[in-house]
């Protein structure tokens, strides 16, 4: 992959339009784990970037994107037709304007104010495309990783929720609990192999992640009924 990734960031260190377009391609191609760490980290901390990436990914012709060689991930091959980088950047700009207008009028761009309560409840169980792309793909196992992770993927739990694993017991790990909108619910530094969260959780789909000082170790997904 290209060594210089500064072209994907603006002067403030945030993903620019080219960076958003690259992440949208990665999401469609299910290759998020191949993005450089600095790009993944920016996505993880920026809700606005995640919204733009997911919105652009929905606009792209997924079959076309998957059929052609990608200039970043498959740089040894020449890209075929489909959306040009200029068109993708233009789409990102349009999406940014739409999100800005939604914020200006105090409306969540992903939330319809007229949605009935039953549908709002159902939305709490919808999967998050960004974190779904990481579930089960970033797990380090064996001597230098973790195994026997609980909760298992899509396991139904109730509060309190105990997170457990084996391996890396002597390493400080950072555990984050997020809802399906990627909103941070709890952040904890854990030494050992378990942590119990006894706070309130509404019914819905949740993600949890473990990371060390250097890298992402595991991303899981579970359900509160």
Outline of the structure:
The protein contains seven helices and eight strands.
Describe, in plain words, how this protein is organized in 3D.
By secondary structure, this protein is an alpha+beta fold. The protein folds into two domains: 6-104, no CATH class; 129-224, Immunoglobulin-like (Sandwich), CATH 2.60.40. The protein has seven helices and eight strands; from the N terminus they run αααααααββββββββ. The chain has helices at 17-29, 37-45, 47-59, 62-67, 85-104, 117-123, 129-132; strands spanning 147-150, 155-157, 161-166, 172-179, 184-191, 194-197, 204-211, 216-224. The longest helix has 20 residues, at 85-104. Residues 77-81 and 101-109 have low confidence and may be disordered.
Which strand order does the major sheet show? Answer: 2-8-7-4-5
Broad shape? globular
Reading the helices and strands in chain order gives HHHHHHHEEEEEEEE
**Estimated helix fraction:** 25-40%
CA radius of gyration is 19 Å
The profile of the biggest β sheet is: 5 strands, mixed
By secondary-structure content and strand pairing, the structural class works out as alpha+beta
Uncertain spans: 77-81, 101-109
Termini separation comes to 42 Å
Roughly what fraction of the amino acids lie in strands? 15-25%
Rounded mean pLDDT is 79
Summed up, the helix count is 7
**Strand tally, please?**
8
Write down the domain tally.
2
């Amino acid at each position: 992959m290209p060594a210089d990734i500064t072209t994907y960031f603006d002067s403030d260190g945030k993903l620019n339009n080219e960076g958003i377009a690259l992440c949208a391609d990665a999401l469609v191609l299910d290759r998020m784990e191949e993005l450089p760490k600095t790009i993944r980290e920016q996505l993880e901390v920026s809700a606005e970037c995640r919204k733009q990436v997911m919105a652009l990914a929905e606009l792209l012709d997924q079959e076309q994107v998957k059929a052609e060689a990608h200039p970043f991930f498959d740089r040894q091959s020449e890209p075929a037709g489909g959306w040009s980088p200029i068109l993708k950047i233009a789409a990102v700009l349009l999406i940014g304007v739409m999100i800005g207008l939604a914020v200006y009028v105090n409306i969540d761009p992903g939330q319809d104010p007229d949605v009935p309560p039953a549908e709002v409840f159902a939305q709490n169980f919808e999967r998050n495309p960004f974190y779904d792309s990481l579930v089960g793909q970033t797990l380090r196992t064996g001597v230098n990783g973790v195994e026997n992770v609980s909760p298992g993927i899509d396991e139904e739990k109730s509060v309190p929720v105990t997170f457990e694993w084996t391996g890396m017991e002597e390493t400080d790990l950072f555990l984050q609990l997020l809802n399906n909108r990627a909103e941070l619910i709890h952040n904890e530094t854990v030494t050992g192999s378990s942590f119990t969260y006894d706070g309130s959780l509404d019914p819905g789909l949740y993600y949890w992640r473990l990371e060390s000082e250097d890298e992402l170790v595991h991303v899981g997904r579970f359900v509160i009924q």
